[in-house]
Structure formats: C-alpha cells, structure tokens
C-alpha cells in the first residue's frame, strides 16, 4: 500500500507500505498518520501541527496492488470561541455559584460558632486559592479561539474546584462533633459532581468544537446543587441548635465551672485566718 498526501501538487506526506517508511514535505515536518494501525482498515487520516496546516484542499491518493483512489479534503479555519457563548456563561456561572454558596455557609458558621485560628487560616487560604484560580481561569477561558490558553482556563475552572470538597468537610466539622450521615451524603454528592466535571474537561480539551461540554456543565451543576443543599442543611441544623451549644462545649462548660468551684473552695480554706 502506498499513500500520498499533497496540497496543490506539493508533497505533504507519503507512506511506503513495502518498507513501512514515511517521508514528509519540507513545509510539513509534523505530518503523520492519526493511526497507522487503522490504515489497513481504510483510514489514512492525516494529522498536522496547527501552525503548518494552512487552509485549502488536501488530496490523499492511495494505491493498493492494482487498485487506487483519490480523496480531496478541504481544511477550513474555524474562527470564534471554543465553546458557544451560552455554554461558557453557564460553566463560569456555576463555578462562581458554588463558591458563593460555600462562602455563605462559612458566614452562617462564623455567626454562630467560634472557629479555631488554625482552621480559620486554612479556610481563608483555600478560599483565596480557589477564588484566584476561578478569576484567572475565567479570563483565559472567555477568550476567543481554541488555544492552549482556553484549555488552561477551563482547567483552572474545573480542577481547583476540588478544594470545595475538603472545605465542606471542615465546615461540617466545625458545626458537628460527630458528622451525621446526611453530611457524608452531601460530601459524596460534591465528589460525584467534581468527578463528572473533570471527566468532561478531559473529553473536551482535545476536541474543537467540544463534543462533551454538557458533561462539564452537568458536573459543575451537581457541585453547585450539593453546596446549596449543604447551605440549607447547615441553616436548618443551625436554627435547631440556636439555643443549644455543641455537645463538646456543653460538656466543657460544666467542667470549667466545677474546676472554678473547686479552686475557689481551695483558696477559701487556705485563706482562712488562724485563730
């Protein structure tokens, strides 16, 4: 089998089946088969670096024994955005919605409970990281075209969202000494949403136009829904516990009072004047 790709009679790529050798034109050093294994099945698709692939008609001529054939493919330049405007807007909106809902949970907790300084620092650092990643990712992702910047932008939108999962766990840990089963279900829902979003990102990053943008949207939507349900659960449980401190605090306070009482009694005995 012999395969020859040309553009305006200029050699792009050729393959000699007898020697299994490939040769490339001077202007197309990156030319290669998409899959050499699929060549016997009739697939002689060619892959080129974007900088070398100029628009126009490319001809593929295949010769096998006494049979030969030729196919012409037109390469066009696709202008515009990687994702359509609606998909971009929904992806960005869902991410910021999830971040806002997490911030709302933190506000509810800060109003009702004391937060250990170490946990407070960790939560602040996590919040700053995901916020910065979301802003930078949005700027890169919103640009037109299908470039490495767009791909990096979508990655900064999807991948750092994993921070929301441990952040949710820590926030539940501040409210409850022993996490109820409902909290694990909500955290599991967040993990599911993140996994779906990452899978969608992996499927989209190698295709233009993206074929699985809905998977990314579905994953971020699940993540946002999980954060909303967590906020509702936190608000309801916080309302029920409004006049009741955490079990740990309820035990600590009587113990502190008992220690103070014993110390007062001790000092009363010591300070009793001699007859």
Question: How would you concisely characterize the structure shown here?
Answer:
This protein is α+β, with helices and mostly antiparallel strands and 275 residues long.
Provide a descriptive summary of the structure in words.
It is a single chain. The chain has 275 residues and is an alpha+beta fold. It folds into 2 domains: 2-75, Immunoglobulin-like, CATH 2.60.40; 85-246. Helix content is 55%, strand content 14%. It has 7 helices and 7 strands; from the N terminus they run βββββββααααααα. The strands form 2 sheets. A 5-stranded antiparallel beta sheet has the order 3-2-1-6-7, with no helix packed on it. It has a two-stranded antiparallel sheet with strand order 4-5. β1 (2-7) and β2 form a beta hairpin. α1 (85-112) packs antiparallel against α2 (117-141) and α2 (117-141) runs antiparallel to α3. The longest helix is centred in the middle third of the chain and has 28 residues, at 85-112. It starts with a strand and ends in a 5-residue tail after the last helix. The model is unreliable at 247-258 and 260-272 (pLDDT under 50).
Features:
275 residues; alpha+beta; Immunoglobulin-like; 5-stranded antiparallel β-sheet; two-stranded antiparallel ribbon; elongated
Summarize the topology.
Layout: E1 2-7, E2 10-16, E3 21-24, E4 32-33, E5 46-47, E6 56-64, E7 67-75, H1 85-112, H2 117-141, H3 148-158, H4 164-175, H5 181-204, H6 213-240, H7 247-270
Antiparallel strand pairs: 1-2, 1-6, 2-3, 4-5, 6-7
Helix pairs in contact: 1-2, 1-4, 1-6, 2-3, 4-5, 5-6
């Amino acid at each position: 089998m012999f395969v020859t790709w040309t553009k305006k009679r200029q050699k792009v790529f050729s393959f000699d089946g007898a020697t299994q050798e490939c040769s490339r034109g001077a202007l197309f050093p990156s030319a290669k088969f998409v899959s050499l294994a699929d060549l016997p099945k009739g697939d002689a698709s060619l892959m080129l670096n974007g900088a070398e692939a100029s628009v126009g008609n490319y001809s593929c001529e295949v010769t096998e024994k006494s049979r030969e054939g030729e196919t012409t493919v037109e390469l066009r330049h696709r202008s515009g955005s990687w994702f359509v405007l609606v998909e971009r807007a929904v992806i960005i909106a869902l991410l910021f919605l999830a971040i806002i809902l997490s911030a709302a949970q933190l506000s509810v907790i800060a109003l009702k409970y004391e937060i250990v300084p170490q946990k407070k620092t960790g939560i602040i650092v996590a919040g700053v990281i995901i916020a910065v990643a979301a802003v930078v990712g949005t700027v890169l992702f919103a640009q037109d075209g299908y470039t490495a910047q767009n791909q990096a932008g979508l990655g900064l939108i999807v991948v750092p969202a994993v921070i929301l999962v441990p952040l949710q766990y820590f926030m539940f840990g501040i409210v409850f000494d022993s996490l109820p089963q409902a909290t694990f279900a909500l955290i599991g829902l967040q993990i599911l949403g993140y996994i779906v979003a990452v899978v969608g990102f992996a499927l989209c990053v190698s295709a233009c136009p993206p074929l699985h943008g809905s998977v990314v949207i579905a994953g971020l939507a699940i993540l946002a829904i999980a954060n909303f349900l967590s906020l509702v659960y936190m608000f309801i449980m916080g309302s029920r516990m409004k006049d009741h401190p955490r079990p740990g605090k309820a035990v600590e306070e009587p113990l502190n009072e008992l220690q103070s009482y014993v110390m007062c009694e001790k000092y009363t005995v010591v300070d009793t004047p001699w007859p």
